[in-house]
């Protein structure tokens, strides 16, 4: 019989890496969206002066 415990650890590592990459991508999109929002608000405040 083979010892298959190491396969589970590898699979969990791959899953965690995929989750981490998804979180980084989502954070990047959030930063882009929020900076665009603040730039838009700042531009409108400057126009309103």
Textual characterization of the structure:
90% of the residues lie in helices and 0% in strands. The protein is an all-alpha fold. The protein has one domain (7-48).
How many independent structural domains? 1
Work out the helicity level: over 70%
Give the percentage of residues in beta strands: under 5%
Low-pLDDT segments: none
The ordered H/E elements are H
Radius of gyration: 22 Å
Largest sheet: none
Mean pLDDT: 89
Task: Please provide the count of β strands.
Answer: 0
Query: How widely separated are the two ends?
Result: 78 Å
Structural class from helices and strands? Answer: mainly alpha
- Helical segment count: 1
| Shape call | rod-shaped
Structure summary:
The chain is an all-alpha fold and 49 residues long.
Primary descriptors:
about 50 residues, 1 helix, single chain, mainly alpha
In terms of topology, how is this protein built?
Elements: H1 5-48
